[in-house]
Amino acid sequence: SALKLLKKEVREQVLYLRRTIDRDEMKELSASIQLLLIESEFFKKANVVFVYINTPKEISTKEIIKTGKIQHKEILVPTITGKGMMKPCVISKDTKFETNRFGILEPGQKTFYEGDIDLAVVPALAVDKRGYRIGYGGGYYDRFFAQKKGVLKIALCLEQFFFQDNEFAVRGYDIGVDGVITEKRLVLFTK
User: Fold this and answer.
1) Which residues on neighbouring strands pair with residue 87, listed in sequence order?
2) 37 closest CA partner among 155, 151, 118
3) Quick check: pTM over 0.70?
């Protein structure tokens, strides 16, 4: 079999390369990626959307959240509830945010959501040709999706970090995404 890339090495490489992208360029790339998602059929059809709140270095989700609210979708964001554990929280226009210990914004008043989720928008440092993603290594999303079987999972990733010809070395508990959106395209994976 082809040589599988080690996630730890790819993560380090991507984090290093990501620092070279300036804020204006990241803004443009984020705008293109968000537009592709917002115009997708699955976003239009989704009533309940779980979406990460980006840090300054990540692909922005601001427009996704804003558009979702305008379209009267239920918007959920991740909140950390314990080591490696997170839960979806409902947000509204009145939600006040606070910064958690990872420097990520989450709702101050938490209203947890227990129902079904139609679409999950997931951050990714990198994605391989099968839809396995590399995050920061905490396993939060793998644990979360292990409990949420039917949700459509779409990763946002820069084109240069979409390893479309490679496979990452994965473990049994790694859960792949169903699709990836880069600034250039939307790719759905056949499982």
Assistant:
1) 79
2) 155
3) yes
